[in-house]
Amino acid sequence: MQRKTLSLPKLERLTPTLESTMLKITEEVGELAQAIGKFRGLSGEETRMPDDDVVRAIVTELLDVAQTATSMMFVIEDLYGIDIEREVERHIEKLRRKGYL
User: Fold this and answer.
1) To which H or E segment does residue 63 belong?
2) Which terminus in the chain has less CB density within 10 A, N or C?
3) Helix, strand, or coil here: 26?
4) What's the farthest any 2 CA atoms get from each other in the chain?
5) Residue (of 5, 10, 4) closest to 73 by Cα position
6) Interior angle at CA 69, CA 40 and CA 27, nearest 5
7) Ranges for the NTP pyrophosphohydrolase MazG-like domain (predicted)?
8) Rounded distance, CA 69 to CA 37, Å?
9) Mean pLDDT across the stretch 5-27?
C-alpha cells in the first residue's frame, strides 16, 4: 500500500470551532473547484496558463483544503480527546474491508 504522508502545522493565534472550521473547509473546497474548472477551461473561459502553472495552482488550493482539514482534526483532538492516529488506522481498515486496498 502506497501512502502519502503530510505533516501540516497546528495553526496558532486562532480559536477555531467545528462550525467555523467546516465553513472554512467549504470555502477552500470551493476555491479548489474554481481552480480546476477555470484553469482547465471548464468554466467557459479560455485558459492562458501553462500546464505546469495550472497544476501548481490546483496543488496550492488542495493544500489549503488539507491544512483546513488538519486544523479540524486538531480541534477534534483538543475539544473531544479523540486519538486521530487511531482513527486513521480505523479508516485504513475500512478501506481494506471495502476492497479499495
Assistant:
1) helix 51-80
2) N
3) helix
4) 48
5) 10
6) 50
7) 17-97
8) 22
9) 94
Q: Which helix (H) or strand (E) is 87 found in, with range?
A: helix 84-97
What residues contact 80, with CB distance under 8 A and at least 6 apart? none
Cα angle for residues 36, 74, 62 (degrees, 5° grid): 10
Alpha-carbon span 74 to 38, nearest angstrom: 32
Q: Tell me how far apart the alpha carbons of residues 33 and 61 are, in angstroms, rounded to a whole number.
A: 9
Q: Give the three cell numbers for residue 8.
A: 501540516
- How many C-beta atoms surround the C-beta of residue 62 within 10 A? 16
User: Cβ neighbours of residue 101 under 8 Å, at least 6 residues apart?
Assistant: 1, 92, 95
- Give me the residue label for grid cell 471548464: 42
pLDDT in tens, 40-70: 777 677 767 778 888 999 999 999 999 999 9
